[in-house]
Sequence to fold (1316 residues):
Amino acid sequence: MPEETKNLTYAQAVNEALSRALAERPETLLFGEDVGIPGGVFGVTKGLRRQFGERVFDTPISESAILGGAIGAALVGMRPIAEVMWADFTLVALDQLINQAANVRYVSRGALTAPITVRTQQGSGPGACAQHSQSLEAIFAHVPGLQVCMPATAQEAYDLLLSAIWSDDPAIVIENRNVYHGEKEPVRLGGPVRPVGGAAIRRPGTDVTVVTWGTMQHRVLDAAERLQAEGISCEVLDMRWLRPFDTAAIHASVARTGRLAVVHEAHTFAGLGAEVVASVAESGLTLSAPPLRLGAPDVRIPAAPSLLAEVIPSAPRIAESVHRLVHQSRHAA
Amino acid sequence: MPEETKNLTYAQAVNEALSRALAERPETLLFGEDVGIPGGVFGVTKGLRRQFGERVFDTPISESAILGGAIGAALVGMRPIAEVMWADFTLVALDQLINQAANVRYVSRGALTAPITVRTQQGSGPGACAQHSQSLEAIFAHVPGLQVCMPATAQEAYDLLLSAIWSDDPAIVIENRNVYHGEKEPVRLGGPVRPVGGAAIRRPGTDVTVVTWGTMQHRVLDAAERLQAEGISCEVLDMRWLRPFDTAAIHASVARTGRLAVVHEAHTFAGLGAEVVASVAESGLTLSAPPLRLGAPDVRIPAAPSLLAEVIPSAPRIAESVHRLVHQSRHAA
Amino acid sequence: MQNDPGDAGPDEARRRLFTTMYTIRLFEEEVTRLRAAGDVVGSVHLCNGQEAIYAGTCAALDLTRDIVFPTYRGHGWTIACGAPIEDMFAELLGRESGLNGGRGGSAYLSAPQWGMYGENSIVGAGAPIATGAALAATFDNSGRVAVAAFGDGALNQGAVHEAMNFASIRHLPVIFLVENNRYSELTVTATMVASDRLFKRSSAYGFPGVRIDGNDVGAVRATVAEAARRARAGEGPVLIEAMTERLVGHYIGDAEQYREPGELDRARETEPLVRCARELLDAGVTESELEALKEQVRRDVAEASRRALASPLASPDTVLEHLYA
Amino acid sequence: MQNDPGDAGPDEARRRLFTTMYTIRLFEEEVTRLRAAGDVVGSVHLCNGQEAIYAGTCAALDLTRDIVFPTYRGHGWTIACGAPIEDMFAELLGRESGLNGGRGGSAYLSAPQWGMYGENSIVGAGAPIATGAALAATFDNSGRVAVAAFGDGALNQGAVHEAMNFASIRHLPVIFLVENNRYSELTVTATMVASDRLFKRSSAYGFPGVRIDGNDVGAVRATVAEAARRARAGEGPVLIEAMTERLVGHYIGDAEQYREPGELDRARETEPLVRCARELLDAGVTESELEALKEQVRRDVAEASRRALASPLASPDTVLEHLYA
Ligand SMILES: Cc1ncc(C[n+]2csc(CCOP(=O)(O)OP(=O)(O)O)c2C)c(N)n1
Ligand SMILES: Cc1ncc(C[n+]2csc(CCOP(=O)(O)OP(=O)(O)O)c2C)c(N)n1
Ligand SMILES: [Mg+2]
Ligand SMILES: [Mg+2]
Fold:
């Protein structure tokens, strides 16, 4: 597909990626609840049914049938793109991802493969209930055989989704509804589809490496801006892919900065931030201050905005924590 | 219940705990697939149906109904003990544990509670397939609102199960079928039921802290024995409860030994071993060698014994890794 | 608004039903305003047009022992159970005085002291839970009947299937109540099932299913009363398919492009409030009596909303409490 | 053992069916020996007594394009599809030459090149997957029919319900084949459903269900052939309830305390091999021809087992391969 740049929202970028996949790869199917005729409950798949007909369709409220159906179709050569409206809902059908999709290639030594792409979205939002607010990436990332990414920008939403669809193995693309209809940004369309994996430095810095993923990165970048004013230079690393996980990029950055913080929206305990800190600790890299994890505390995600604001890391809280991290070690030094 | 000591297998100890709960607490129910009349597919619940009648019953192969049914009964005052035959099968009904049971108390501010106990078992075994071999504790432990334990001995199987049943919040007790019918050991029955939580030092030592849980501890203790012969003194810490997690016990031990290794059967990446290492790194405790995580690599669990042996940590491999860890730092020192 | 003792005359009973339904309607209309004003945030699912199901059911239950498990579309259920609407407004407004201190919000609130055992925002998940509460009734001599309420689209969810089979083989006192408003969010449910006569699904599990006019509050009340009698008598579950219409979007903000032209006009002719009002007049209630009754509800709802708005936001100080005992 | 071209005469076809069934039986008996000897380890689910379902179904399918999705009780399916039994023994024995190099084992092996798309050890999980393969057939012009095979107990699993509804509304070419051996592990399935006439479950989804004698290989073959014709013609799914008996335990080692006295003796009288042999003799095949045929199978099975045992164990060197492309 010829390269071009368009001003798009995150949702429009996803739509462009789906449209490209459906156009370039006849074996792709796109389905899920309200995905076809209504164009998606968030309007992300608008127009695709009209453009691609029967290959884009609505399903019953049956996540096991949606995911199992995608796997079965993939086993015989299709490339299904299935939507699960909220990551929270994958929990009614997780068997199909963990016991089924993740096993197929390995157990058959490649004789069978399940190249499905599961599009979902997660995260909290003011007023959203505890069953529509979870960040579950650590659960998916713990499962060998799956691939997991969390695009944070319109460009990444386009690029990572295409990488997932083009990949020959199951991939879960976790979007975030809060950014679907935000500011438009120039998005490079077309061009070669990148292979799965690889972190990205969102902001180069020298004092501390702040590892993050998903839309939390916007708060981290905001915090980095504030810290700059305080004379602290943050290197912000967007992991993008949580499986495969670009540990090398983390180590390389930490080797430069000597300090590490991880920030994610998911619960801190047994969250993926622990993997980041553990891999650095194992690496033997010396840190000038103990590493820091910032995420949601042990709590269920409350609906009231005044409560939600208290449990999800905010830019000021991130800035303050990272400031303390750097400050303390500067004194130490 | 009067205290007494009996020689029991792990399975018999579980049976004794269930029998005590059913006898002392009329609000307990015990159900699951093959749990009643057949006495359990592993024979763990033998005789309980005859002894306690209708309160012990068989269910359809419907994990969502089993777990949801347990929650509903708990909401109105019962204390259901539900069995899910394999931890792998919780994945067809995880919604009931994560979106339902875990939320009830918090969201209602205590007006509603779901004191269910889910008995399941997990782990690999020679010839067992990839859908019956997973270690999923990291998934459960990541969820605030749940409680998770992994008893490794007959005594712990009795004690922890009772703690779970007596607790006023949902608890998942993860047993291991490989030890159900092993050697009998003296088990103290009766006496006060301990509150949930708390790690246990299985073997005191001075050179390195080896954190583990579940039946993997038997291989760790074996390795510790071998290392003793090589002049390395291991302190083996059995976490027992993965949520709540006795981080203080880990830090206290590491403060003494200055070295840390974590061994579990689950996949290393994003496994709970990462939480152990991360919490120690954050604590600022100084280690005389980089910490070590030993678990299953990125692979699906294969059925063939020759392959399985390669991916699950064995006593020799544990000993060798811990030896290298201690050795390298002794040289350094 | 609670279940009608029965000693009240038929007119009085009908008056109460109307009051309940009208309160629900005005509550939802006020919520719509609060949402537009930005006082209520997040996704909100209104039940305008489905009020007869909630009022009729709760009037047929004995809420001193019976309990209901609604979905995210549960404001009407909560009001019909008798929860104070001021506390409900407060909950939606994220106030400390909210039913759940703002933890639940519009889509996941609960009022167990009123027999409302919790909305559920996972489609179908409430069915096995209600079944479990009914299971308990076979052991605790409570005589409890549990109502699992869910929509037409929920019948395609595995958990609902498992719950119905489980309830059937144990003859559990649970009523599966389908609020059939013909839509699963933005999708026509009839296109997602081979037969849209959903009440027939129960035959696969060997218990009765019945389709009723869910906008006829009397029919709902009578049908649920009989189902509850059966259930209490140990005769097992019933599936009630209550046909209704959602007069608003699936959620506030829904563009409703899926509507047929004229669809809503037709729906407004058969909606439960218009019908119940007509019945009251036919039964001899005067226009002015009816107007007085409505005026009272208007005042109550306005007052409750004002009070809730004036009350303090949920305090972050206690946000970490109540995760465990 | 593969699907019968049909140009073969009826006797020849019946001979092949017998050969397939007898091979399955002897395979399972050899596995029993290997398990007792400790060469095969782990839990093994045998299909003794259910052979007619596999032989009859595969004979009715066109395995150049049709595919089957069995459960953990899948040795018979794999043999009926035509996979080499030596490779199957090798898989159960954890050998490098196993169908899946020992990755699958007895309960999760696959032989896609033979149309056997994988056992499944999660009850009910194969139903939506088979449905997905049928979904693909509505796009890829393959003319594929997918068979979802599962047991009587699996019908209570949510995923099966979702799959049946999904297949029905899209008229997908999938056959839901219930191997009704009356037990869910150690539990009598009739106690876990209100009606044990399981084929009636399909009516809830608006497609046909039929109960047949699953020990009558001819009946199985004819019923599946018609179901496959319908499916290929775009007329949608069928639920076939094949009544059979498991002549052995749920798994090797099962004490089978749940059996009625005399139950197995009765079952042995109606078991498919005895019946098929009688049919062959009635059709004029001589005792000695039959004996010769059996002897050949005995030799093939013994030889395959010996060769598999002699082959090297799965090599750990490649254990990390094939997780991703
Ligand atoms: C398991 C699950 N899947 C999908 C959703 C998203 N969702 C919320 S409401 C809804 C439609 C439900 O339709 P119906 O059951 O008819 O109830 P109604 O909204 O019409 O009252 C869907 C698909 C969900 N909440 N849970
Ligand atoms: C989701 C799930 N729950 C429970 C089990 C454990 N289990 C394995 S086989 C079986 C019984 C299945 O009975 P049926 O469907 O009749 O098949 P059969 O074994 O008789 O062939 C059960 C409960 C499982 N494998 N998966
Ligand atoms: Mg609806
Ligand atoms: Mg069976």
